[in-house]
Amino acid sequence: MSNPTARVRHGEAIEYGTVEAAEGLRKGVLIDESDGAPNFAMRRFVLEPGAEVPRHTNKVEHEQYVLEGEYVVGIGDASETHRADGDSAERSSEDRSSGQCRREEAVNEEEHVVSAGDSLLIPAGTVHWYRNESDERGTFLCVVPNGDDEIDLIETNG
């Protein structure tokens, strides 16, 4: 791409849509390659009270900044997924139409309570999830490299 052109998008122009894998999560794309951004997409997510985003991995890294609210972010290992039969992680089922795959449960997980002003780095392939246990919505910015991302849902035992 040649030199990008400066651009301003006003908040009221951002359209928010639901995220298929997570009830209570909405996403708005603030700036991406369709706006001339050569490298990164910036998105804003809204996590409603009581909403949960299941354990998953993404093909690309995520940098996040919490704007408001307080919620739980779970983070597991990037390479420590396993199957119930003890074999290494492999996709147990795939839904190509949604771009989502399912994997087995991850190990070595930690949960962190985050709030406004906190930032996160979630490397590509790292298991992570979100849970809003508060009565207030949580919102965060998420920056990712331009291009396709693949979401792998992690199956949990139980």
Essential attributes:
158 residues, mainly beta, 7-stranded mixed sheet, 6-stranded antiparallel sheet, 0% helix
How would you describe what is shown here?
The protein is an all-beta fold and 158 residues long. 0% of the residues lie in helices and 47% in strands. The protein has strands spanning 16-19, 22-31, 40-47, 52-58, 62-68, 70-75, 93-95, 100-103, 110-115, 119-122, 128-131, 138-145, 151-154. It has a seven-stranded mixed β-sheet with strand order 7-8-13-4-11-6-9, with no helix packed on it. It has a six-stranded antiparallel β-sheet with strand order 1-2-3-12-5-10, with no helix packed on it. Strand 7 and strand 8 (100-103) form a beta hairpin. The chain is globular. Residues 80-106 have low confidence and may be disordered.
What shape does the CA trace take?
A: globular
Taken as a percent bin, the fraction of beta residues is over 45%
Total strand segments: 13
Helix content: under 10%
Backbone structural class: mainly beta
Radius of gyration: 16 Å
Number of distinct helices: 0
N-end to C-end Cα span: 48 Å
Q: Characterize the biggest β-sheet.
A: 7 strands, mixed
Please describe the topology of this protein.
Layout: E1 16-19, E2 22-31, E3 40-47, E4 52-58, E5 62-68, E6 70-75, E7 93-95, E8 100-103, E9 110-115, E10 119-122, E11 128-131, E12 138-145, E13 151-154
Parallel strand pairs: 8-13
Antiparallel strand pairs: 1-2, 2-3, 3-12, 4-11, 4-13, 5-10, 5-12, 6-9, 6-11, 7-8
